[in-house]
Amino acid sequence: MESDKKLISENFNLFKVRKDQIIISDTEDCDKLFFIIKGSLRIFYFTPLNVEVTRTFILENEFCTNLISFSGQAVNKENIQALEDTFVFYIRRKNFYEMLAQSHVLTELYAKILEQFIARHLSHFQFMNMLTPKERVEKFLTDSIEINRRVKDKIIATYLGVTPEYFSKTKNAFYKK
């Protein structure tokens, strides 16, 4: 266990990110895995029609990367942006896989993180495809209080697949109940 802590401290670097700063752009390889200490990030992309879509929000004590690019399976097409001043630890791809090769404990931890990642994205896929826009907004307001408090409505709308005007109108009606 002590050797695992040493591996982590030797391979992760602390980085301060300013609000609105893009730390990985859709034109570069996503060769870093981030762990959020304080603050928040989002992963977003643009559709072929240049519509902005937020794929996910990442808060404190969560990992963040574009897994497809990080694992070398495909070219990165997403941006990672700080939504507020944020402190992260990061590790580069090469160091990450070298670290896993040296520790069964960290490999098992990574497997658990991947399971959580898959479950989170499957839940969001179902959320986006099985609920009406109104139901998505209402469920978001009920289940994601912290994100709603910290993130601008315009950005939340890109996550929910609705216009900012629709989100604002539905949000106001929801809170008047």
From TrEMBL:
It comes from the Bacteria. Pfam families: cNMP_binding (PF00027). CDD domains: CAP_ED. Transmembrane segments: none annotated. InterPro entries: cNMP-bd_dom (IPR000595), cNMP-bd_dom_sf (IPR018490), RmlC-like_jellyroll (IPR014710). Residues 16-102 form the Cyclic nucleotide-binding domain. This is cAMP-binding domain of CRP or a regulatory subunit of cAMP-dependent protein kinases. It comes from Epilithonimonas pallida.
